[in-house]
Amino acid sequence: MDRCGNGGQLQCVNRKPRRLPPRQKAKPATIDHAAIDARRAKAYSEMENSVCDLSRAAELAMTVFDNDRLFLFAVGQLDFMVQRFRDRYYAEEFPGDN
């Protein structure tokens, strides 16, 4: 230790702490809400046919609930349709004329 008791580290007594220039606040990104709404409306419109098909398939499955063979077939078809819908939903592949 040196005589100042700081473990041998030298300190500059006359030096002022260096100040960094003030940070400029980042401007928030401008969001075009109208464009986002238009994209969402288009996407929902393109999915409408598929959603209606799923709804109708579910109704048909419930209609044939009493007949085991038809019910299993209808549920199998509904499952296939739902899986295809899910895959297309996450891949964002809904053409306008589906």
What is the rounded distance between the termini? Answer: 81 Å
What is the tally of helical segments? Answer: 2
Q: Return Rg in Å.
A: 33 Å
Mean pLDDT value = 82
| Residue runs with pLDDT of under 50 for 5 or more positions | none
Structural class: mainly alpha
**Number of DSSP strands?**
0
Order of helix and strand elements from N to C terminus: HH
Structure explained in plain terms:
The protein is an all-alpha fold. The chain has a domain at 41-91. The chain has 2 helices and no strands. Helix 1 (33-63) runs antiparallel to helix 2 (68-91). The protein is elongated. The model has no long low-confidence stretch (mean pLDDT 82).
Summarize the structure.
The protein is mainly alpha-helical. Helix content is 56%, strand content 0%.
Features:
98 residues; mainly alpha; 56% helix; elongated
